[in-house]
Structures are given as C-alpha cells and as structure tokens.
C-alpha cells in the first residue's frame, strides 16, 4: 500500500489515515436529545528533515500526495536522514489487523439495536419515580476507527478498533443537597451493554444514601483505602504522566531524578502500560508505526521504564515503547499512555478493611492531577473504624506527595479491575486510555 | 414542505510548536465541516459532513434516513443577509514563524534558568448559516494564540507555570515581553503568603459553571443550585452577568444561536446587580417547561442543539484593578487544582505554584497553599470585582475574589 505514495528523497515522511464512525442515541429526562451518525475521514501527513517536523492535515484523501509534496518543499533534505537517531529507531512493520467485521461492525449495527439498549435502560432505571432523582440522562454510543499508516521507511499498517458504551447518570437532590452520580459500562456491541441494570440501581441507591447521610469529616492525615477505580486514577494521573519521557529530554534535574533502577516505591508497587490490551487504550501500533508492547514503569518498587516516542527514545538512548499517539488526524503524535495499571497484589478487600483500625475508604473520585503534590477529588467516601466500613463522610480532596505515597502503599488487593471510562488530556490533545488497579491501602494521605 | 438549512465552519490553522526551547513542529490544518438539516413534519433530518461535499448530496443524505429524523416541533428561523467580519488582518506563515522565533529567542536570552515548551499559532474561522427561509449569516474571525509553559531548571516538576494570550494581530512584541517579564522576572524570589487571600484570574471557568446552573431545565427540575432563586438577590450588588454576542474581546463567537435565533440587541442580562433575572433555554426547553425562550441554543453540527454556548461577560467595575485592590496584594495561580463544587456550593483549591502581585508588579513566587471557597459567597461578600482595565498577566480582563486559607 505504501507504494501508492511517492515519498520525497532525503526526508523521512509518514501518512496516517483515519476513518472514523461515531454514532449514538441519548435521552435526557424523557426527550431524545441525541441521535447521531457522524462519519469522518482525514489524514495527517508528516515530513521530517532532522530538525523540524512539518505536518498537514486534510479531509480529502486524494490530496495526500499534493500535501506531502508541499511539506517537502518547506523542509531541507538531508541525504543522511536515515542515520538520524530518531529515524533509525523507527520500526518497519507491515500488517493488516482488522478485527471488526460482519454484522457487529459499527457501520452494520442498526439504529434499532442502539435504541433497544437505550429503551431497556430507560425502562429499567427510570421506570419507577424516585423522589431524589431530579434529572437523568442515558446515552448509548459507539465508535469505530480504522487507521492506516504508511512511512517512507516502508511501514504499511492497517488496524481497527471499536467500542460501545452506555452511561446512566442521575442528578440527585434531597433537602437542598445535590449529588451527581451514575454508572458507565463498555462493550463491543449495544447488546453487550445489556444486563447492568442492577448495578446501576445499586449505585443510584448508594449515592442517595450518601447524599442523605454523609457527615463532614475533620480535615487531616488519614490512612486511606482506595477502591480499584481510585487506584486506577492514581496510577494514571499521579504517576503515569511523570513517566512520559518527552518532558525530560534535556532536563538534567529530571533525568537525575528518574534514574532507572532507583527505588521509588514500596515492594508491593508495580505499574505497567500496555497498548496491546484490547481495552480503551488499545493501539496495536502507535502513530509512528511502532508495535505496542508491555512497559513496566515500576516493578516491585523499582523504576524500570518510561514511555517514549522516537524522539525521546533516541535522546535518552532507550528502546521504543509504542507510546506516540495523536488525538486524531489533525494532530501530530506526542508521548502518551495507553492502558496503564497498578498490578494486583494478594490481599482480599475484606482483609484490607479488617486490618484498618481508623481511616477512610475512598469509593469514588471524579478527577485528579499530578504535580509533585497530586490531587484527587473524592465524590463518595466512608469512614473506617475498627476494621469496618462505617458512615459515609464528605471528603473534597485527597492530596499527597507522589513518591512518598508510592512508599506508603502497604496493602495491595487481588480485586484488580480495568476502567475504560477515561480520556486523557495533554498538550491540548485528548486520547482514549484505560486505567486499572486493585484496592490498595496508603498509610497516610492529606484528606480535606 | 421541507425546509433546508446548512450550518458550516471553514477553518485554517498554522502552528509552530516548541519543546524544551527548540522548534519541534510546524503544523497546517485546513478543514471544513457542515451540518445539513431538512425540517419536515415536526422532524429534522441531520447529516454531518467533514470535508468538501456537494450541497445537494448533503441535503439528500439528511433526508435519506427517516428513521433517524429527530422530533423537532418548531419552525426554523427566518431572517436576512448579515455578514460580520471581526478579523483584523490576514496572518501569513512567514510572519508566524518570525514572531515565534523572536518570542523564543527573548525567553532563552533573558531567562536561561528556565526551559520552555509551547506554541504560537494562527487561526482563521468562517462560520455560516443559510436556509430556505432567507437566513444568510456569516461570521468571520481570526486570532493568533500564544502559549508557553515554563519549568525552572532546579525543579523536579514537569511544569512550574505558564502564560498565554490571544490577539487579533501581532504587535511589536510588547505584549509578549511584558507578560514573560511579569511571570519570570521575579519567579526566583520567594514571597510570603499574605494574610488576606485574594485570587486574581480569568473568569471563564467560573462563568461556564454559572451557565450550567442557569439552564432552565435544571432550574425547573431542581437539579440546579439556583433552583427557586430566579428573581432573588443571590450575589453581590456589584455582580452583573450577561451574554453578549457583540463582544469584541471574545474569539470566534457567532451572533446567532444553534437554532438560528438572534437575541434583540444581541445581549441578554442573566444576573443583574446580584439578582437572578432569568434561566436560559432553547426551543425544546422553553416549550417543555413553559419558560421564556431566551435563544440560548448551543451549536451542535452532528445533532440537535442543546442549551448553552453563550458568551458570558461579567460587567466591569468602574475601578481599575489597582483601585479594586486598594493597596492589598493578589495571587495569580499558575498550577492549581480545585475540587468540584459540592451541593452547598463549597469547593477546595490546592494552589501548587502562584505569584504574588501588587497591582503593578509581581513580587515573587509563593509556596504551596490550600484555600476553600463557596460559590455563593465568592460572588457575594467575597466578590471584589472585574477591573475596568485589562491585566497584563493575561492581556485580558480579570476577576478579584477573596478566599479562605485552610
């Protein structure tokens, strides 16, 4: 396929073509407010002369060669471009990996199948009036993407990905208090999304109980037991972003701080990123054509890896990891996570709680960020006393030092889960990712 | 009889990106997206297209899938011809490259103890609406956007701060140099956190939050914190919030809403001297909840409109920022993370890096601290105001708010 493009001499070039179909139906308080079918096709063309990347995007695939030639005019050819360290590292892969075919390929899934799932949840989850539910929305959506990649080094890759999701969300009010909550689940077809109504209703009832009964908590340092979804957010936001190597290329301080082999956490902590998993961060190849692989960022508390694109891997004399990703065909790729998780341990959830005399169980968080001090915003928490989960308590923010917290993890559960509900933002680009982890216990976090 | 309508946006972007002081990429984007709509029998068929497409094909495809025709029991808007061009110049790539290089040179020459990443880009956008009922609206605008993050060479964080601004044409570099000097000139001086915490910031995240609370559907269903408060004085006497489609300081805003409606005078006062005047609605919400139709539909090319998409402005004070501060000092947060606002309107904020500002100069960098605030008191007793002058640190208007340190 790459033979159909004429790549310029003395330059590296690649072409990424994306064909995307997004569809979905959504009901808001009984009104159908979304009923979309949105196809989109576009290409990003990149040219590199050893100094600068020149990129152009187009929706007209017949213009690709013209755009490629125009970019080549801007660049300065270098006969030794193939010897450039970053270009030398780039892999040459040729594979067609189309997983989604037949009646369950999104373009063949009828609107009726989406509506059937939507109507099922409308009936099951909003059928009976609940006084605390002041507003609700239910959406069933699907996205399919076929990505093709061709490079002047000879890569020719085609792969596809598809994900459907259903979200049931409530706005709950009681005595002037308000809380938003809900549940989202994922599958490859609308039918795979069925069967979660009991979880949805249980979650709704949990949030109603929390809304009515949560008590204020005295801010301070507490032992915290983090639920799997909270651990997942910690692994991604608080640690994962720091492992993206594009921030440390010429930064002596950061490079000294992030020396491979350095002990950075408790022996119980291992964190991995892998684009190979068929989850929300699945990319069999990254946007430079590098094959995805498993990269252990921390293994048994020791720093063992970081995430790279070709530029960062060449600058730090390390191997490619397959983490060069772009939001879409309008954007150039940068170093990004894929499926990132803190690996499971051996403890049961019950044992972790039973072993905690005084602390907080963080059941749900809404978002988080990671600087030297990381922040996670908690939405549902419970007090732990004498090894038992007790009353719900209001916690707005959990903060801590990233590295201190990694050392303070003293229990790691076996109840590992991966969550597909993430999109991650960096440098103005959003990409789909997943994050995972088990229940963990942290000896102390600042809770307030 | 079917009525045909086309919404479209044609965009050109160029951007030069820097990583760790070096130019990394030069990017070009050209795109056109269109939404073809066919209204018939209280329904609308919609076809979204990205890339060039023949109009007849677009309308045919909007009509082709009757199953997907959405309920829309409203008459599309009629109107005339109006074209508004807010752009002030035509940017060239040559000018962009020269300006970007000049900016980076200034940073590296004057502040070698930092590393810089960011971008300088230009964007031209033409948005239009045309239908069978005579509407032929076009809004054109262009801006240059400049944004740099910086990291001190001794810092172990990925980012210590950043600054950004937009202009409709590049000046001689004064805006950039002034901003860079403000943020970086005294960064290495460690200042003391003042007793009274006054935060100075751009207010768009705040007004975005208020907009969702003013959604008439949320007000009607009780899912807004402002439910039952329309007509009541909730905020400070000095706080007035309005939608202003004429706003010259806003970028790429259209004068019509997502349903083609134009507000009389193109302004809508939502909160006046602290009193909530109205919720906001599109046609669906106005009809369903029997509330005034405020012509506040957001633009949704792929589907039905939704409530939102307003250009909200807080009315400026007659006093300058310095006069509002009255000898006090304010804090410019650079890295700050806030908790969501809870049901009581309470929120917390961790301010990791920030600068202390006396109304003219930055006095130094502050250590990390935490504050708490309540949305009602923040815009009530703790509201100081939006200055009559722009703040040089943002090249934009800014709001002064008191918060409580915890």
Topology record:
The complex is a heterodimer of chains A (448) and B (406).
Chain A: E1 12-28, E2 31-48, E3 53-58, H1 64-74, H2 85-89, E4 94-97, H3 111-126, E5 133-151, E6 156-174, E7 177-187, H4 197-213, E8 215-216, E9 220-226, H5 228-239, H6 252-257, E10 271-274, E11 294-299, E12 302-303, H7 310-315, E13 324-325, E14 334-335, E15 339-342, H8 349-354, E16 358-370, E17 373-385, E18 388-394, E19 397-401, H9 402-408, E20 409-412, E21 417-426, E22 429-437, E23 440-447
Parallel strand pairs in A: 4-6, 8-18, 9-16, 15-22
Antiparallel strand pairs in A: 1-2, 1-5, 2-3, 5-6, 6-7, 9-23, 10-11, 10-15, 11-12, 13-14, 16-17, 17-18, 17-19, 19-23, 20-23, 21-22
Chain B: E1 3-19, E2 22-40, E3 43-50, H1 55-64, E4 70-71, E5 81-85, H2 93-110, E6 114-131, E7 136-152, E8 161-167, H3 174-184, E9 197-201, H4 204-213, H5 216-221, E10 241-244, E11 267-272, E12 275-276, H6 283-289, E13 297-298, E14 306-307, E15 312-314, H7 321-325, E16 330-338, E17 346-357, E18 362-366, E19 369-374, H8 375-378, E20 383-386, E21 399-405
Parallel strand pairs in B: 5-7
Antiparallel strand pairs in B: 1-2, 1-6, 2-3, 3-4, 6-7, 7-8, 9-21, 10-11, 10-15, 11-12, 13-14, 16-17, 17-18, 17-19, 19-21, 20-21
Describe this structure in words.
The complex is a heterodimer of chains A (448) and B (406). Chain A is α+β, with helices and mostly antiparallel strands. Chain A has two domains: 2-213, PmbA/TldD superfamily (PmbA/TldD fold, 2-Layer Sandwich); 216-447, no CATH class. Helices cover 19% and strands 43% of the residues of chain A. Chain A has helices spanning 64-74, 85-89, 111-126, 197-213, 228-239, 252-257, 310-315, 349-354, 402-408; strands spanning 12-28, 31-48, 53-58, 94-97, 133-151, 156-174, 177-187, 215-216, 220-226, 271-274, 294-299, 302-303, 324-325, 334-335, 339-342, 358-370, 373-385, 388-394, 397-401, 409-412, 417-426, 429-437, 440-447. The relative contact order of chain A is 0.14. Chain B has 406 residues and is an alpha+beta fold. Chain B contains eight helices and 21 strands. In chain B, strand 16 and strand 17 form a beta hairpin. The mean pLDDT of chain B is 94. Classes of the chains: A alpha+beta (448), B alpha+beta (406). Strand 3 (53-58) of chain A pairs parallel with strand 2 (22-40) of chain B.
